[in-house]
Fold:
Amino acid sequence: MVLPPWRLLWLLLPLSSRAQKLPTRDEELFQMQIRDKALFHDSSVIPDGAEISSYLFRDTPKRYFFVVEEDNTPLSVTVTPCDAPLEWTLSLQELPEEASGEGSGDHEPLEQQRQQATSQESTELFSYKGNDVEAFASSSSPSGLYQLELLSTEKDTHFKVYATTTPESDQPYPELPYDPRVDVTSVGRTTVTLAWKPSPTASVLKQPVQYCVVINREHNFKSLCAAEAKLGADDTFMMVPKPGLDFSPFDFVHFGFPSDNLGKERGFLAKPSPKLGRPVYSRPKADIQKICIGSKNIFTVSDLKPDTQHYFDVFVVNTNSNTSTAYVGTFARTKEEARQKTVELKDGKVTDVFVKRKGAKFLRFAPVSSHQKVTFFIHSCLDAVQMQVRRDGKLLLSQNVEGIRQFQLRGKPKAKYLVRLKGNKKGASMLKILATTRPGKQSFPALPEDTRVKAFDKLRTCTSATIAWLGTQERNKFCIYQREVGENHSEDQKRRGHNRCLGPETRRKSEKVLCKFFHSQSLQKAVTTETIRGLQPGKSYLLDVYVIGHGGHSVKYQSKIVKTRKMC
Structure:
């Protein structure tokens, strides 16, 4: 067993302070002897079975002590470095006779006690140097005074120590499964899904645990306190001393010292642990994030940076003792952003564009010559699309486009234009777009506002149908095509018929009825009619009218279905 802290502190007092016999378990007398806080401050005691957090100043060693009274006692000491490697040594020396506190007879002279203390040799049991979580364990340790000495040569740092004399079967830290690796089950552009096997501490021992996931871009962490030190916020109990001061992790209140103002005098800050339950997100710092997710052993990390390597660590935390154990961490590289292919627009040339449902297309126009104006002609063949134009990154235009539209922008020397076309929710979109610095040579024909084709019911016969449509003020070529359709003309076929970008070149020669030129300076008189002959009685026909501009680009009016009479 380890001596009670009050008796161990008496053992660590200078010989002159403990020359008088300490009455067995007389804590009141002991407290009177150590009222001087500076004397208490010089003694660092490791409590049995409790993890302590402490702090080291660079190149300043720190020593901790504990006593094992009986031989063949199990002993385990675990040291966890946080934000810097540690050098630590565990050594043993025999107990002086005063350690039991129950001897009899006269006391030896003070000088003789000093000689005995200085003549005792310590035996080094274990030493380690590095930043791994390392432990010394023995199933049968001799009695004696044990000393743990720690040193940080790199920087000021936090660390944790756990010592116990309980049997090995009493696990102070959560156990890892037989396969302690963290697996990456899926990777996206901004997400990574992780999975790991549950800790036996929860599944077998039925102790409460939670898992904490740490994400960063630099490296994996070997302990939770190392990750928390990087975060700058220990979620368990971080004590940050003021420069020039040291402190003992021992509980002052148990020795009769008041708790008020003690923290201020000792120079440390205590941060309580957060309440458990919902995932706890630590404040991100230096591209590191800690997320505690409860007892589930699968988790999807989101909001990651695309095409970037991230490191993932999982820690299982015993929520009763707040001790933690690290799984074997992993890493993964998120996928690249889907690169949008940019289509180059040539000055004065029509480009066909297909946009998926709710998709987007990017087009680039870089005039080779100086210009005062840039004109964009766009023909939305089916449903409306959203059009945005940026010049050298600055947004110049954002409009919904349906049918044929024309936009004229002020030019700028050596300017580059980026066009973004976004489809709608109904379905895929087809467009024709033209960009030019010479808007006088218009390739898109001007259309009237009303592009319907009207059929005259009274002029229907068994073999003919008469239709009319509005013309334009400019002289254009109009072509009429007809095709027989069945009674069950499908919606898909009707939608295809509504595609006003499909020109006469997509029709069979046998479907062509005629072409003619027409225009009128008066919009009120710009109406033309045509009678289509040679039809079959009682049949339905799809009639289309195309207007073809000077540049050869054609636009289709709205399709019209007419049915000839059965009896004449």
About this structure: Residues 454-563 form a domain with the Immunoglobulin-like fold (CATH 2.60.40.10).
